[in-house]
Write the structure tokens for this entry.
Amino acid sequence: MSESQEGTIRCADCRFCRQFKEVNGATGRYVLKVRCARGGWQVGRKLGHTDWHRLMTRRVRKCPDYDSMSDNERDRARYLCDLAATLPLERIVYEADGEPADIFEIHGIDLSTE
Ligand code: SF4
């Protein structure tokens, strides 16, 4: 088990951190979220989850189930750095076919400047 320099573990590097789609049953649109497959993010009786774009904020002080996907600390740091650089800045809503949804169109917002 390896821990970051601040003494915390980033779940993003753990093999039990899983991405999933939270689907709106009425529209088929979805957003990407992440959860801990070992139930490590339990909030009371519920299993917690985090928006995909906020993945880097998910960290724990200690976790007996932590299992890094990286071979060494250097790979781990590089993986986390690359991940941080490629995560979206905000939540993206996707259409059922995987294309990003046009939020302005969904909410009827007209951005024309006429
Ligand atoms: S097993 Fe622990 S370190 Fe891994 S994702 Fe779950 S809470 Fe985070």
Q: What stands out?
A: The first strand starts at residue 9 and ends at 10. The chain has one domain: 9-106.
